[in-house]
Structure formats: C-alpha cells, structure tokens
Amino acid sequence: MADLNRVFLMGNLTADPEVRYAPSGEAVGDLRMAINRRYKGRDGQEHEEVCYVSVVVWGRQAETCGQYLKKGSQVMVEGGLKYEQWEKEGQKHSKLLVRANRVQFLGGRPQGQGGDDESQREGRAPAPADRPAAPPAPEPVPEPPPAGATTEMDDDENLPF
Q: Is the CB of residue 114 less than 8 Å from the CB of residue 98?
C-alpha cells in the first residue's frame, strides 16, 4: 500500500521566524503558526478554535523567511508531518511538526517594509522608477458641431480627393 504524508496549512505567524544554522552550515528556520477555524455549533452559536503548529523550513527558504516574515505575517505552508522524540533531564518529550517543502508569503508586504532603497530608509519619496505608473490621461473627445452647422466633410468642394 502506498503512503501519503502531505500537509497544506494557511495561517498567521505567532512570532518572528527564528533562523539558526546547522553544523553543516545549512540554514534552519522555525516558524510558529496559528490556524483559525470558525464553525457553527449544535447550539447555533458561532465558535472559533485555534490550532498552533510548529513548522521547520530548511536552506535558502529558511533565510528568506527570516528576512521577510514577521509576527502576524500570513503564509501558506506545503510539506509533510514529522514526529520528533527526545529525552531531556530524564523526561521523554515528543512533538508533531510540519517539515515545509514550500512556504508561500500571502497578504502582501506589511506597512513600512519596502526594499532596502536608500530613499525609503531616509523617509524620502521613492524615485520615479519605483513609483507606480499613473494611468494615462484620456484623449480629449472633440465636441460635436452645433445643429445645422456644416463641417469640412459636408461640403463636396472640400473633399480631400
């Protein structure tokens, strides 16, 4: 029988990502997510429950998460479940986490998070190339001639051919 271990989660980060480096030099990022579920109970009342999930992401993706994500950022994570067990001070511990294959940033860039453009750091307006282009101005539409007036094309003598 074939096995399948695939998880898709969408939620918000409950803390800034924590990025560290393994002895091999590879980046490892820890993300903590909250996924809200709203439902109507048998009593007819709206209920909400929150599921907190730990996510581990590796490599360049971990570094990118650490650079661009903050507490409250909305993300979608695709990956698989991983069960970890360890013993600390004689106590056995375990946790189920998600090992991310892909982290997708959702919700756009938070306020105040521009690029590293010098003008943005200094509080100046961005250069024209950085500003969104203004929509083109509509071409003026000529007004129709008053009733009974002749135009160039009405007079046979003024035909261009």
A: no
- Parent domain of 37: 7-110
What pTM did the predictor assign?
0.63
Domain assignment present for residue 91? The answer is yes
Tens-digit pLDDT profile for the chain (161 aa)?
889 999 999 999 999 999 999 999 999 999 999 999 999 989 999 999 999 999 999 999 999 999 999 999 999 999 999 999 999 999 999 999 999 999 999 976 655 555 444 433 333 334 444 444 545 545 554 555 555 555 544 555 555 54
Q: How many domains does the chain have?
A: 1
- Distance between CA atoms of residues 136 and 45, nearest Å: 51
Q: Is residue 26 part of a domain?
A: yes
Write the CATH number for 85: 2.40.50.140
Q: Quick check: is 150 in a domain? A: no
91-124 burial string, b = 16+ CB within 10 Å, else e? eeeeeebbbbeebeeeeeeeeeeeeeeeeeeeee
